[in-house]
Design a protein that fits this description.
By secondary structure, the protein is α/β, with parallel strands linked by helices. Helix content is 39%, strand content 18%. The chain has twelve helices and 14 strands. Bound molecules: zinc ion.
């Protein structure tokens, strides 16, 4: 597992790791930051650094900057590119795993259609694998999480969006066009809110952090609602987010509790579909569930029986991720392991 100072968003390096000379490189490309790390097969992370995505203005400057970052980190732990065993890249979706390409993620327009695998394979001459961030996180849960090696496991990001990744019989389900387990766009209500994907009433429109924030901001503004949520956002409507909601729920704020009941009901509905589809033994929830804990898990478990068959519900553990913020590093490392295992 990671060193204890990895969760605070700051870079860190451990002192010399001279006895160890096999490196896996993990890369996590996000809309705000790009992370690169050096780790090993057991999930130990030896160095991790971040750079801001926006100033790079796209892959032309961005990709060499990531390569430079990796070289610098290797040097700092007394290693060189020859010590790299494999590279894994977690990218926002949609992606083409076969082509090793990021396709058209809405929050990274400058990076559209970037051939990530080709670049890093040329740069370091090591096996490289990429996947979308939710699939990468599901693999990280499978390799390193609390439900490690559970052969039937589904991970839901439960963060800004609602990404999903499914492991079935020990294998990540990819689908013909790499969008299997794209749970965020399961339609929960055909008359529901418009989703940017073109459908109405998608799971993500009810349970994604960004959609929740938009809904609360609009309602609080239009109806001048007096709520702790606004207080927790320092009175700034634009700053209201899912974290403010979770904290207001913990303080028993009446408006927050109303939003929370709708949210947990819809979350149970979405999870119910997942349980009927994949019949997993573990259903692991990311960010919002990590922050909310039992405030989220208890009502979801209560509602779940209305949305899936009892045996499916009874045979599945619904839990918050034990990996937490280290998911960025471990997602890349889990893909690097995949790259390594694909070698003859
Ligand atoms: Zn949608």
């Amino acid at each position: 597992m990671l060193a204890s100072n990895s969760g605070n968003g700051k870079d860190f390096e451990l002192p010399c790791v001279c006895v160890w000379n096999m490196a896996l490189i993990g890369i996590d490309i996000g809309g705000t930051k790009i992370l690169a790390c050096i780790g090993d097969k057991t999930g130990k992370i030896f160095a991790s650094k971040r750079i801001a995505t926006k100033p790079l203005k796209g892959p032309q400057k961005g990709l060499p900057a990531i390569a430079e970052l990796i070289r610098k980190m290797l040097q700092e732990v007394n290693m060189g590119p020859k010590d790299i065993q494999a590279i894994g890249i977690s990218s926002p979706g949609p992606v083409s795993v076969k082509k090793g390409m990021m396709l058209t993620p809405p929050n990274l327009p400058e990076w559209h259609n970037t051939k990530l695998v080709e670049f890093f394979e040329k740069e370091f001459e090591k096996p490289t694998v990429m996947n979308n961030d939710a699939n990468a996180a599901a693999l990280a849960e499978y390799d390193f999480g609390g439900s490690q090696r559970t052969p039937n496991l589904v991970y839901l990001t439960c963060s800004t969006g609602m990404g999903g990744g499914a492991i079935v019989e020990g294998k990540l389900v990819q689908g013909i066009s790499d969008v299997a387990a794209e749970v965020g766009h399961f339609v929960l209500d055909i008359q529901g809110p418009q989703c940017p994907c073109g459908q109405r009433g998608c799971f993500e429109e009810y349970c994604g952090g960004a959609a929740l924030a938009r809904k609360m901001q609009k309602e609080i503004q239009e109806k001048s609602i007096n709520t702790k949520i606004l207080e927790l956002a320092q009175g700034n409507i634009g700053k209201i987010d899912a974290a403010c909601l979770v904290n207001a729920v913990k303080e028993n704020d009446p408006y927050a509790r109303t939003i929370w009941s709708e949210f947990t009901l819809r979350l149970a509905q979405g999870i119910g579909v997942v349980l009927m589809n994949f019949n997993p033994e573990a259903l692991i929830l990311g960010t919002i569930a990590i922050h909310a804990g039992d405030y989220l898990l208890n009502p979801v478990k209560e509602h779940l029986i209305n949305f899936a068959w009892k045996p499916n519900v009874l045979s599945c553990r619904v839990e918050a991720s034990a990996i937490g913020e280290e998911i960025s590093e471990l997602s890349g490392i889990a893909l690097a392991i995949q790259a390594l295992e694909a070698q003859p």
